[in-house]
Amino acid sequence: MMPIAESEVRWVKPPTLGLLDRLYLPAIAQGLGTTIKHVFQPKVTQQFPEERPDLPANYRGLHRLNRDADGRVKCVACYMCSTACPARCIDIVAAPSPWPDREKYPEMFVIDELRCIYCGMCEQACPCDAIELTSMFDLTGLSREEMMFDKEKLLSVFDQSVAMGKDPVRTRAGALSCASEPNV
To answer: Considering the chain, what is the average pLDDT of its residues?
Structure first.
C-alpha cells in the first residue's frame, strides 16, 4: 500500500472564535428565535385518544374473518393466505366441513399479530374473501398470548367492525365468492 503524498494532505485549522461566539450569545439568540417561531406556528399534534386520526381508505389494520349470510365462518381452509404471508404468522388447521356447501372449514385459525407486517397479502390471496384487514388500529395486549388472534377473536372483530359501520364487507361474488361458483 502506497502512503499518501505530502502534497495531497491538507491541514485544517480550527475556526477562531470572537468574543460573542465565546459567550454563546448568537447560539442562544438563534435557539430562542426557533422557540418563538414554533410557538406561533399552527399545531399539528393530535391529542390521541381524545382526537381520533383520519385514516386513508386503504389503511391496513387489524385482521378479521368474515362471516357468510348464515353467520358461519367464510373461510374454506384452502391455506392460500398462510402460503402468501411473508411473515409466516398465519396457522390453519383444516377439518371436514359440517355444511354441505364446502369440503373443509378451519378448525383452528390463528394469526400472530406481533409477527404480522400488515402487508395485505393474505387478503389478496384469499379466493373467498374470508380474511380482510380493517381500519382498527388501537390494538394492545399485555402478553404475547393476548396478541395471538384465534378464530373466535377474529370473528368477534368482524362483528365489531360491522357494528361500527366503518369497514364494509368487500365481497366480489356469491356467498363464498369464487369458492361458491359452480365448476364450469
So the answer is: 88
| Domain layout of the chain by residue ranges | 63-171
Q: Which amino acid is at 83?
A: T
Task: Give this prediction's pTM.
Answer: 0.69
Give the pLDDT confidence of 92-113 residue by residue, as tens digits.
999 999 999 999 999 999 999 9
- Type and span of the H or E element at 160: helix 151-164
CATH of domain 63-171: 3.30.70.3270
Q: Which long-range contacts (CB under 8 A, 24 or more apart) does 116-120 make?
A: 116/63, 116/85, 116/87, 116/89, 117/86, 117/87, 118/60, 118/61, 119/60, 119/86, 119/87, 120/60
Sheet of 148-149: strands edge to edge? Answer: 90-96, 104-112, 148-149
Which residue type, as a one-letter code, is found at position 100?
P
